[in-house]
Amino acid sequence: MTTAATTEPTTEPTAASSSDRAGLRHRLAERGIDARLLLLLPGLVLVIALFVYPFVYGLGLSFQPMDGGGPFENYRRFFGDAFQRATIGKTLWLALPAALLNVAASVPIAYRLRGRFRGKRILTTILVIPITLGTVLTAEGLLNFAGPSGWLNRALLGIGLIDDPLRLVNNYWGVFFSLIISGFPFAFLLILSYLSGIDPSLERAAASLGANAWNRFRLITLPLLAPGLATTFCLTFVLAFSVFPSAILVGDPTDSTRVISIAAYQAAYEQYDYPFASTIAIVMGVIELAVIGVVLAGRSRLYTGTTGGKGA
Amino acid sequence: MTTTPTRDIPGPAPRRLVASPLAWLVWGAVGLFLLALLGVVASVVVNSLGSRWFDTWLPSGWTAQWYREAWTGFDLFSVIVTTLEVALAVVVLSILVGVPTAYVLARRTFPGKRLVFLLFLLPIMMPPITYGIPLATVLYKVGLAGNLSGVILANLVPCVPFVVLTMTPFIEQIDPAIENAARMSGAGTFPVFTRILAPLLLPGILASAILVLVRTVGMFELTFLTAGPTSTTLVVALFNSMNAAGIRAQQSVDAMAVVYMLVMLVLLVTALRFVNPTQLVSQVKEEPLE
Questions:
Q1: Which residues in chain A (161-180) have CB-CB distances under 8 A to chain B?
Q2: Which residues, 6+ apart, have CB-to-CB distance to B111 below 8 Å?
Q3: Mutual angle of helices A82-112 and A222-241, in 10-degree steps
Q4: CATH of domain B74-281
Q5: Which of A110, A236, A276, B262 lies at a CB distance of 3.0 to 4.6 Å from A191, suitable for a disulfide?
Q6: Which CATH number is associated with domain A77-300?
Q7: ipTM for the complex?
Q8: What is the mean pLDDT of residues B249-260?
Q9: pLDDT digits (tens, 9 = 90+) for A130-160
């Protein structure tokens, strides 16, 4: 707000300005350009200096391999090495099912709980807890809870469901569970807020025309909810795709859960090969944006008008 | 939570008994999830308080020694101080930078507005690791990483856009006539901000400040990539001690995890006094991209 002091409203008369300059300024102001736009400056400078510039710098760096070779040497190295290349598949194999499950499980539950009921506020509050705790703490808890002698295995053994403790941590499933624990509440709360934005009278109108519960959901609610589902999927996918701490802590970071962020981290902080690390980070960003682009392209074909409720 | 499951049918719709199996399934799934969540959190707490815990339901004895050990061994006090310093600096800076930006985006139309909006949306939509690694490289090059300023700068990258996106709808709600009246009475942009907008926006600023606080304390990746030995926050210290297994007793790590949980819980309780739980989640609820 300190910068705001320097921007004066343009209405203030400046005696020295010739009619020509005033005319230009007037024309610019008509198109929406005047001194108050300078308020954008601090934010823009920050995003450009700390987000755009590093990205461009990293992109440039990725074309300057440390050990020589052509400009695409780093990319060739990444895609030519099966060990590195496999990280893409491993990341997607974790992130896509986890994001899909989070969204798919949230829809019926949120649909069921969309109205008012006692304890709704408590339930939503409890569900916020795993989001705020984050994956590091979830990982620590999972190691204790789902470990070979943890409560989960102990309970399952106790009721005779299994004969040997299940291996649920330090492998794919540990990471998967940690993505569910932090991702499901996230998806659920988002979808719940989308659902409460849909006018309930639409559904009542359908009911009065004789539509049964399934048809009301399928033909009325789902089409209105679909754009929200696409957005939720994207946000959940971003969370799952950037899985890093839990892949190391509850996963199997040398093999089955060596996700792409681990590869990038190792290149930067273990081999100090920043060009290669930037290469991996760029590849990671491109893949993520590609998935989101596909989903959002599908979303733009959906109905995105008003939903009649408070969220419209 | 064991109320009759037919309650939530909107309005006077017919109460269907057919839906009961679905209701059972839904409540069952929620119950199982909450049980697992409770187990995850409780096992950390119990382990941090137990003296020895092998192959039994509960530890064989109870002790507070791990907390003493964690407090001195991990230098928890200075870590907590660092965490709060980083979080407060990020909150203040991102509000100061974000609110004027949100104001322009809410009130004005200008050429290139969509591009500017996209610029502020991207840092939220990208995984922190993807821009964190190039950012850390640049910050190390100019000598800003490895200390407090690097951690603060890196955390500003997602937080400023977050403030912009959460504040824009708040500003849109305020009647522009109030501002115009102030301007007609001779107020410049700065007085309009401090004397007209700031008091009206206070609830929104408070909500978004608290959300930024929670996010910054919980932010792992960016802090991890830019922090030096004296500028680690609680969550990074927790990760480091977990990752360096064997150096410390597991229970001592869990004691630290409980301290982290308590800090988060205090923030969460404060946050929920001011914001709706769904607000903690929906970062970009309405994406005006298309």
A1: none
A2: A31, A32, A33
A3: 140
A4: 1.10.3720.10
A5: A110
A6: 1.10.3720.10
A7: 0.78
A8: 83
A9: 877 777 888 888 888 888 878 888 888 888 7
